[in-house]
Amino acid sequence: MSLIPYPQEEAYKSALLLQATLFRAEGQEEDAASRFAEVATLEERLAQRADAEGEGLRAIRSRFSAASAWANAGDFHHALTLLQTLEQRSDVPDLLKERARTFAETLRLQRRQWQETLQEVSLS
Questions:
Q1: From residue 99, how far is each of 7, 15, 83, 105, 112 by CA, in Å?
Q2: Which residue, 46, 47, 104, 124, has fewest beta-carbon neighbours within 10 Å?
Q3: Of 114, 110, 16, the residue nearest 65 (C-alpha)
Q4: What is the pTM assigned to this prediction?
């Protein structure tokens, strides 16, 4: 088993993450969100591929990364769905389950704050 399962995809993903980070640093949030969403989609495909090849831990890592990318893209629902799936799987190490649980709690808090802000703005 190689450390990088899919070198081309991993290189492309890294380039997208770098672009997203640079866009965010420049205040170009829409461009950053678009790149993060592309990373998330790629990570989900990598997870499916890893599952099909019997690489369960690699698939789990990719799903966690996809959840992080979806959260960075602003899609809390998609991120939380992936995190809940990881929490429920029996093959996920306990430490990663705890990280997924903590990350999900943080996202739920952020979503509540975002919803409150939207409500305040819409009532103004």
A1: 26, 25, 9, 10, 20
A2: 124
A3: 16
A4: 0.88
18 alpha-carbon distance from chain centroid: 15
Other C-beta atoms within 10 Å of 4: how many? 9
**pLDDT interval class at 69 (50, 70, 90):** very high
- Structure-token pair, residue 67: 């959840």
Helix axes 94-123, 56-73, angle to 10 degrees: 20
> Which domains are present in the chain?
7-123 (1.25.40)
Region of residue 92 (left: phi > 0; alpha: psi -120 to 50; beta: else):
beta
